[in-house]
User: What shape does this take?
Amino acid sequence: MENTHWWNRAVVYQIYPKSFQDTNHDGVGDLRGIIDRLDYIKKLGVDVIWLNPIYESPQVDNGYDISNYEAINPTLGNMDDFQELIDGIHERGMKLVMDLVVNHTSDQHNWFKESRKGKDNPYRDYYIWRDGKDGKEPNNWGSYFSGAAWKYDDESGQYYLHLFAPEQPDLNWENPQVRHSVYDMMNWWAAKGVDGFRMDVINLISKPAGLPDAKKSADEKYANVEPLVSNGHRIHEFLQEMNRNVMSKHKMITVGETPGATPEDAEKYAGLDNKELNMVFQFEHMGLDSNPNPALGKWDDRKTSLKDLRANLTKWQEKLYGKAWNSLYWNNHDQPRVVSRFGNDETEDYRVKSAKMLATMTHMMQGTPYIYEGEEIGMTNAYFPKLEDYVDLESINAYHQLVDDQHLLDGATMMKYIAIHSRDNARTPMQWDDSEYAGFSDHQPWEKVNPNYKQINVKKALADKNSIFYYYQKLIELRHTMPVITNGKYALVTGNEDDDQVFAYTRQNDDTTLLVILNYTAETVSRHYDVPSTATLLISNYEDDQHDTIRPYEAKVYQF
Ligand code: TEU
Ligand code: CA
Assistant: This one.
């Protein structure tokens, strides 16, 4: 039942177009650059390519502020390039998923330009406008990018809601015209051959009736809106309506980015009956290393313990089994690099071993794996020392709010946290080779290249048969050929619950069992697991098997 759709066996490769490959010498990646690299992506063996937004946009939030949903950002290319790209993807037997950003638009979108003209404008109700309260914002909501979630507009004398930057006003999904404009636009892209959508913060679109204040702790200047706004009261109605108007008319793959979603929510969004979305992309395992003080959000330097990680991944594997479908990932364009965050990038050997171990952890689970550009060669965090090195508005705004404004952290501590958690870590240019600018461009890139590009790059990875690249290639091939990886039942090995060094689980269907053993640490440890004498070693990141002796970051999977 769980692998009846093609995408149940699929692996997705995510491309951040601005950082993938530049071809016209301006230091910004472009569509032609992706076209040039399609054979590389095909070699990895993935089935689907997801592109971050490539639409017309002032780029306040790198394309998540869209000013025209039906035009290509000219810096990235034009509609002819797009057509060539989609044809190239299809010719190679892959599919294309586009980013759908419809919680908000850019403030430069025509809808918003009209909307702010005044209360009587026909587009006024496309957005969320309110009068102030006692000379202040309509409620206490904070923006994801620091500060209030409301901006006063002089022109029309009211506040508008922006859960993200002020240049990203939230659309009013209560308005049926907004909803049908979005469905029309989705159908327009589907007619061009797009195979699906990754839906940006889709579970934030239904705002609570009356827009009440959210819970706020003493240190917080504005409230974190996620618990109140995510999974709102009309969300399932909206997504079912979208499904009837769009998804049911095409063969599409859909994934909802759903911060704040629990397994119970996932059953509704991504139940196997597919009334709404095919799968969720949720964040619980990404939040395990957040700061315990809500005012500091994700800014901290703690490492996620194996106990917390295992408990969380296990919960999702068990609760969704036979009911709903999840994404499996460590990285995206908003997250630090997996090998620096959960693994060990201090030595070359540990970097390679821990990257493979972490890949094994997720790729042997049930769900749809996502590989983010550069993950397949073990790219690391950038460790930029100065605030000026960072480009992303989230990091820069958080620094000013927490250090300069609220004095909750000193500058040096915040810089340490930014080096660990900044979204820029994911956005440094793809490292293709050891030439200047890493083969990404021959021009100074829009975001600095990670200084380690001479050691870590695609050219080196492809020349080394033991590279992280070929390990991912093998994991993908195993998923395509072994049904147990997509349909087997997940179970923790008895007694593993409290082990703070080794993670051991099984996957089992009617004819096959897999035993996955993963050392999360740099220690050599001794553990005994019952492995039948008939078992074969399916994949491992060491050259030999020392059975009960499990070496640093060792990963091995037995099949029986
Ligand atoms: O991200 C939504 C989201 O939940 C992020 O704000 C996340 O919490 C944060 O980036 C973690 O640091 C999506 C996109 O993936 C992101 O790139 C956009 O900036 C955001 O929506 C607004 O569109
Ligand atoms: Ca370019």
Q: What stands out?
A: The mean pLDDT is 97. Residues 176-191 form the longest helix (16 residues).
